[in-house]
């Protein structure tokens, strides 16, 4: 059969890895089979499942018109729990990582003007936004702060935008002058801010009285989740009483199909929601693009086309 | 008929996919186009046709090279003025497509629909009780048209008056994706009146609190879309949310009347209701075709499609491509119809698909409890539309359990 549409959990291969600033590496990720990657929009992040089950979230900062590769930039976190150090020191070109998402809690909404405020590695989700705002012919400004010029990624890619971009290295000019930039709410301006907690708090404080929806933030802390597993796990189907093994590299949907249990699916990428299945016991390892954080934490449903289990055993309402 | 220059090396078809006899029974042309090659030049319209599953699936997902913003009908918005302001969902590409799509998929997502489930199942029970009081009826008129028109406009938050305008409006909108033939002409006298009514329903004050429409306006208050976009997003619900579901229901009811063995299977295992609906959507493909427009030169299956050319994707043909499906012409509940392209695929995949599935599940579940067997009580009649595959009438006799 020529065109079986492959579903299931997606693996990515590191196609390129390079330093883009002091302490920052950019990874280019592709599918080993050369297929299209799931679509995304600016503000989206992916979960990367590193060998050993560490899961880390990174904003996509590449070009969504290129359907075949993702780019993420990773800051070395000296106090982190090992994910960024692993990526910097050990992850090599050619290695594979698991993918969850892309998910988007930080969507670019329509506006007449944008003010983008980036702190350090917080530039990553804003970079594709800047490109899109430019493409839409919108009036926009970017205020970009960092410890020093050398530590600030993607200055070269921002260069062509000229004085729309204000670069503020702390060792040269001190902190961002938020009082000058955020003087009052303008209903035609949306402010997008991403960076360390201190920056977000400072911005939020100044915008506390703004009408809702004008300020949109994403906290760039190392969002840590452990326990993803690409190893086999046990699947129990409560209604039919069947017990199955989901092998590594095979999706729950495929395992169900192998056992003759049909679950309707459509996109097979965790995007459309057709394959939603109730979870009765166990902890899903969500890899979909649909659930928000609260829904993920509730753990009472999963999208079997992509998601797996963090527990040894998962009981589904099937 | 305009004669278009034929590009070299591409199989050519002189057929008219929008001719009455093809709309009535598309299968022969679909097979001919699939067998001709991965890409066929449709001389009559100067468009490129895709009829095989692999190419249609790939084209649907490739929004980068095959745009929707120049219109998903034959008319090319690069050169022609659309008959109404373009849809922010269907006739827009990323990035303009992103925000309206995100808002609507949240409002129509499976978790948001959970609160409707009980009420819709109860409504379906009530309707089925009413209809089954007679042993013979027209299943299109009494069930397929009636149920969606009972539950969907309420869920949107429409007022009680004028709902009879929804079907003719949708029918015309779907006709208008085709060439300006007699089906489009037939609708034209009422376009202004119907559009005016539909547009008026999209205003905030017309929409009851708590409904899909009100939630679209709330999303505008939160800044997720603009207040100018809100009424057009509501309009998308009213254009695409009724006819398609009606015809999907018609398709599944016809399937069961034509094959009582399949109905028996559903009665034995009513949890197959969702599969049954998707299998019917695969088998009948209520939305038969959509166009895209090439952005730059686009190579498909060895053919280079020039910039700005219209590409016609035959969803119905793809859903019956024997290269992808075993015995594709058979409606079969033991088949896994997943990944059919009847709802499209990719960023434009039908955002209301969960609504349609829930409506169908409610109706089929209610019928399965009471009906032992359906049979056709007379010849079914097709309703012709340039885009939709539909029944005008399905006379049925039922045997109660
Ligand atoms: S099939 Fe689309 S989310 Fe699983």
Task: Provide an overview of this structure.
The complex is a heterodimer of chains A (318) and B (401). Chain A has 318 residues and is α/β, with parallel strands linked by helices. Chain A has helices at residues 83-89, 123-135, 155-158, 170-173, 178-181, 197-206, 252-258, 293-298, and strands spanning 11-21, 24-30, 44-49, 55-59, 70-75, 96-104, 113-119, 139-146, 165-169, 189-195, 215-219, 224-225, 233-237, 243-246, 276-281, 284-285, 301-303, 308-309, 313-316. In chain A, 17% of the residues lie in helices and 33% in strands. In chain A, the strands form 4 sheets. In chain A, strands 5-2-1-6-3-4-12 form a 7-stranded antiparallel sheet, covered by helices on one side. In chain A, strands 9-8-7-10-11 form a 5-stranded parallel sheet, sandwiched between helices. In chain A, strands 14-13-19-15-17 form a 5-stranded mixed sheet. Residues 1-6 of chain A have low confidence and may be disordered. Chain B contains 16 helices and 13 strands. A 6-stranded mixed sheet of chain B has the order 1-2-3-9-6-4, with helices on both faces. In chain B, a hairpin with a 4-residue loop joins strand 11 (381-384) and strand 12 (389-393). In chain B, helix 5 (110-132) runs parallel beside helix 16 (353-370), helix 12 (243-258) crosses helix 14 (273-284) and helix 14 (273-284) packs across helix 16. The chains are: A alpha/beta (318), B alpha+beta (401). At the A-B interface, loops of A face helix 3, helix 4 and helix 14 of B. Residues 265-268, 270-275, 288, 303, 305 of chain A line the site of FE2/S2 (inorganic) cluster (FES).
């Amino acid at each position: 059969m020529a065109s079986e549409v492959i579903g299931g959990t997606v693996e990515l291969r590191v196609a390129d890895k390079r330093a883009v600033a002091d302490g920052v590496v950019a990874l280019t990720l592709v599918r080993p089979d050369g297929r299209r990657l799931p679509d995304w929009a600016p503000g989206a992040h992916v979960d990367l499942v590193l060998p050993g089950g560490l899961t880390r979230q990174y904003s996509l900062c590449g070009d969504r018109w290129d359907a075949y590769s993702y780019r993420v930039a990773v800051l070395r976190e000296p106090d982190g729990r090992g994910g960024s150090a692993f990526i910097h020191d050990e992850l090599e070109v050619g290695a594979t990582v698991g993918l969850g998402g892309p998910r988007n809690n930080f969507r670019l909404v329509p506006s007449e003007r944008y003010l983008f405020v980036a702190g350090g590695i917080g530039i990553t989700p804003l970079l594709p936004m800047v490109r899109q705002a430019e493409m839409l012919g919108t009036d926009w400004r970017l205020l970009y702060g960092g410890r020093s010029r050398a530590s600030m990624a993607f200055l070269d890619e921002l260069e062509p935008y000229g004085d729309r971009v204000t670069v503020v290295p702390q060792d040269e000019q001190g902190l961002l002058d938020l009082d000058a930039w955020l003087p009052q709410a303008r209903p035609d301006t949306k402010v997008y801010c991403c960076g360390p907690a201190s920056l977000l708090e400072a911005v939020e404080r100044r915008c506390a009285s703004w009408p809702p929806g004008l300020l949109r933030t994403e906290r760039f802390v190392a969002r840590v989740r452990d326990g993803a597993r690409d190893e086999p796990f046990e699947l129990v189907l409560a209604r039919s009483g069947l017990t199955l093994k989901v092998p590594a590299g095979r999706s729950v949907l495929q395992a169900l199909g192998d056992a003759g249990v049909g679950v309707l699916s459509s996109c097979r990428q965790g995007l459309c929601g057709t394959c939603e299945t109730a979870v009765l016991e166990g902890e899903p390892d969500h890899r979909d693009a649909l659930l928000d954080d609260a829904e993920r934490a509730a753990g009472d449903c999963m999208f079997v086309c992509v998601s797996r289990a963090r527990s040894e055993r998962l009981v589904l309402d099937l | 008929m305009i004669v278009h220059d034929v590009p070299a090396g591409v199989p050519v078809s002189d057929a008219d996919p929008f001719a009455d006899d093809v709309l009535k029974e598309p299968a022969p042309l679909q097979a001919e186009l699939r067998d001709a090659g991965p890409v066929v030049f449709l001389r009559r319209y100067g468009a490129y046709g895709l009829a095989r599953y692999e190419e249609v699936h790939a084209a649907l997902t490739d929004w980068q090279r095959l745009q929707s913003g120049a219109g998903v009908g034959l008319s090319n918005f690069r050169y022609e003025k659309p008959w109404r302001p373009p849809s922010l969902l269907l006739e827009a590409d990323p990035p303009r497509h992103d925000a309206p799509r995100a808002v609507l998929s949240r409002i129509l997502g499976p978790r948001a629909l959970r609160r409707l489930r009980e009420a819709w199942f109860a409504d379906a029970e009530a309707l089925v009780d009413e209809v089954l009081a007679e042993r013979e009826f027209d299943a299109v008129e009494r069930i397929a048209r009636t149920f969606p028109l009972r539950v969907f406009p309420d869920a949107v938050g429409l007022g009680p008056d004028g709902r009879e305008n929804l079907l003719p409006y949708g029918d015309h909108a779907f006709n208008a994706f085709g060439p300006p033939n007699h089906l489009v002409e037939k609708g034209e006298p009422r376009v202004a009146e119907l559009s005016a009514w539909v547009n008026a329903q999209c205003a905030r004050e017309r929409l009851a609190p708590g409904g899909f429409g009100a939630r679209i306006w709330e999303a505008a208050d939160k800044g997720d879309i603009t207040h100018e976009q809100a009424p057009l997003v509501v309009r998308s619900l009213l254009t695409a949310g009724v006819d398609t579901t009606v015809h999907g229901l018609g398709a599944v009811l016809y399937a069961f009347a034509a094959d009582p063995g399949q109905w028996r299977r559903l009665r034995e295992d009513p949890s197959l209701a969702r599969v049954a609906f998707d299998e019917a959507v695969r088998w009948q493909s209520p939305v038969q075709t959509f166009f895209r427009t090439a952005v730059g030169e686009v190579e498909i299956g060895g053919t280079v499609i020039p910039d700005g050319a219209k590409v016609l994707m035959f969803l119905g043909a793809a859903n019956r491509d024997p290269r992808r499906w075993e015995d594709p012409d058979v409606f079969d509940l033991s088949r896994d119809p997943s990944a059919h392209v009847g709802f499209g695929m990719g960023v434009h995949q039908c955002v209301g698909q969960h609504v349609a599935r829930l409506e169908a599940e409610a109706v089929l579940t209610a019928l399965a409890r009471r009906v032992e067997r359906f049979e056709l009580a007379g010849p079914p009649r097709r309703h012709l539309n340039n885009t939709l595959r539909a029944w005008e009438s399905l006379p049925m006799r039922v045997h109660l359990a």
